[in-house]
Write a structure and sequence with these properties.
It is a single chain. By secondary structure, this protein is mainly alpha-helical. It has one domain. It has 14 helices and 3 strands. A 3-stranded antiparallel sheet has the order 1-2-3, covered by helices on one side. Strand 1 and strand 2 form a beta hairpin. Helix 7 crosses helix 13. The longest helix is centred in the last third of the chain and has 34 residues.
Length: 348
């Protein structure tokens, strides 16, 4: 059992330590980098402690009380809309004694647990669609479109694995295509109505997607310059290019700038290894396999979105790199998720 746990624990610890090293090496361009470094170390310690605590709790009890955890997270999402701290235009944060946390990061854990609990019950699909809708709307209003995408990825990862009749998949995906088409139609042809419905923040965020398609944008241009200057072994002693959000949204670009192609390759290999382990567990586990499927979908999506947006292959959506980017809510939530995974494997 210890050997099986180490297969997960060693690579995720390595990713976290590599992230801390990158934050330290970014000191020349990050204001008050020491505060970020100190906080990330504290977050890492909290995450490790929670992982080992959660791993010891019988998953039966975790699943039994998952709905209460979901309701608690929804209440936090409502609270943050009213009293939350606004950062980078999103009212997504609660500040406690100088430490901010993002309730939506923990809502994805609650959603995943509830999907695993209810998806195979009577009217399970309707229940799960309702469970998806509530945090999605509340998070959309913050606005935090990146986390809404997390919820959707979790839901569709589970939904696709159910093996339903083809008409259900066609109906759902057709509805999504229609909504996306309507969204961009309003953006291009009726911007006033678009702003009335979605607000100026979403107009700006959509504008960033269009800028990406036109290969424009200060952030991505600087990120690409930094990556180009990183070369094979990087610039360990000289951070030559300023990259905005270097330790959060553009962490992978910072890794390529500081430690070069070799550093980026090291990180990608670890992620591929973890992905392989998750896929293997999906086929090995019978109970709670939907939790593992949802976790795999979320984990894989976040890797791809972050890395690809850092190298200008996908639009910038403000998504962190799991276990690596700075951010207590993201780091701790992933340690909780993998603690739950090890819990499932323990009691399988």
């Amino acid at each position: 059992m210890i050997k099986n746990n180490l297969k997960y624990l060693i690579p995720i610890f390595l990713l976290s330590l590599f992230g801390i090293l990158t934050i330290y090496m970014s000191k020349s361009i990050v204001v008050n980098y020491y505060d970020y470094l100190f906080k990330q170390i504290i977050y890492l310690i909290i995450g490790i402690v929670l992982l080992f605590v959660i791993k010891k709790i019988n998953f039966i009890y975790v699943k039994k009380y998952s709905l209460f955890f979901y309701i608690f997270c929804v209440l936090l999402l409502i609270y943050v809309l009213i009293f939350g701290e606004s950062i980078n235009g999103s009212k997504s944060w609660i500040n406690i004694f100088g430490y901010s946390f993002q309730p939506s990061e923990f809502a994805k854990i609650a959603l995943l647990l509830c999907l695993d609990k209810y998806i195979n019950t009577k009217y399970g699909f309707i229940k799960c669609l309702f469970l998806l809708l509530i945090p999605s709307v509340l998070t959309f209003l913050q606005p935090d479109t990146g986390t809404v995408l997390f919820y959707l990825v979790i839901f569709f990862s589970v939904f696709i694995s159910l093996g339903l009749k083809r008409r259900y998949y066609i109906g759902l995906f057709s509805s999504i295509i229609l909504l996306v088409f309507s969204y961009f139609y309003l953006y291009f042809f009726n911007s006033e109505l678009f702003i009335d419905i979605f607000g100026t923040s979403f107009f700006y965020r959509t504008d960033r997607i269009i800028n990406f398609m036109n290969s424009e944008g200060y952030q991505i241009n600087n990120a690409l310059l930094g990556i180009g200057n990183g070369g094979i072994i990087g610039n360990w002693n000289n951070y030559v290019i300023y990259i905005p959000e270097a330790i959060t949204d553009f962490m992978f670009a910072s890794i390529l700038t500081i430690s070069g192609f070799l550093g980026g390759f090291f990180v990608i290999i670890i992620f591929i290894y973890l992905d392989f382990l998750l896929v293997k567990d999906i086929y090995c586990l019978n109970k709670n396999k939907y939790f593992v499927i949802g976790l795999f979908g979320l984990f894989l999506y976040q890797q791809i979105q972050h890395i690809y947006m850092n190298i200008a292959l996908l639009p910038i959506t403000g998504i962190t790199l799991p276990f690596v980017s700075y951010g207590g809510s993201s780091l701790i939530s992933y340690y909780i998720l993998f603690g739950l995974l090890l819990n499932i494997k323990k009691y399988h």
